[in-house]
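Please decode residue identities from the backbone states below.
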């Protein structure tokens, strides 16, 4: 039986909380799923990244993109370019994105344009405040 390749994406603090239950559940089925966890590096501060992996008992990311800091456009574009390379390397059957941060937008768009199926977990509560980047995403 062929294992389904799943590439999960996290990048910012809200993503870590949302991906934790998914990581815990999918780890129960190692014969059915090959799971790769990718961290875009959207939030690079230790308190917003590594500490959450430890507190939530999430495995260390298999891939870390080290996204550039900068404007939303710079960061999103950098993640798109780097994530495309990760998709070519991993060849996932599915990309799982969570939330509505720049990493989610960049990776979902890249996966879809690469012909990879996308699963989206929780897009957040809509505020209709278009000054918030997540609302636009």
């Amino acid at each position: 039986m062929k294992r389904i390749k799943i590439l999960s994406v996290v990048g910012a603090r809200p993503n870590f909380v949302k991906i934790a239950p998914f990581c815990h559940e999918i780890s129960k089925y190692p014969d059915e799923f090959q799971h790769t966890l990718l961290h875009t590096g959207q939030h690079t501060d230790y308190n917003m990244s590594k500490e959450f992996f430890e507190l939530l008992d999430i495995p260390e990311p298999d891939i870390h993109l080290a996204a550039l800091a900068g404007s939303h456009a710079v960061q999103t574009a950098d993640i798109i370019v780097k994530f495309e390379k990760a998709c070519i390397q991993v060849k996932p059957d599915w990309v799982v994105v969570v939330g509505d941060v720049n990493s989610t937008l960049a990776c979902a768009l890249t996966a879809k344009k690469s012909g990879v199926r996308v699963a989206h977990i929780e897009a957040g509560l809509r505020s209709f405040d278009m000054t918030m980047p997540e609302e636009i995403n």
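Observation: The mean pLDDT is 90.
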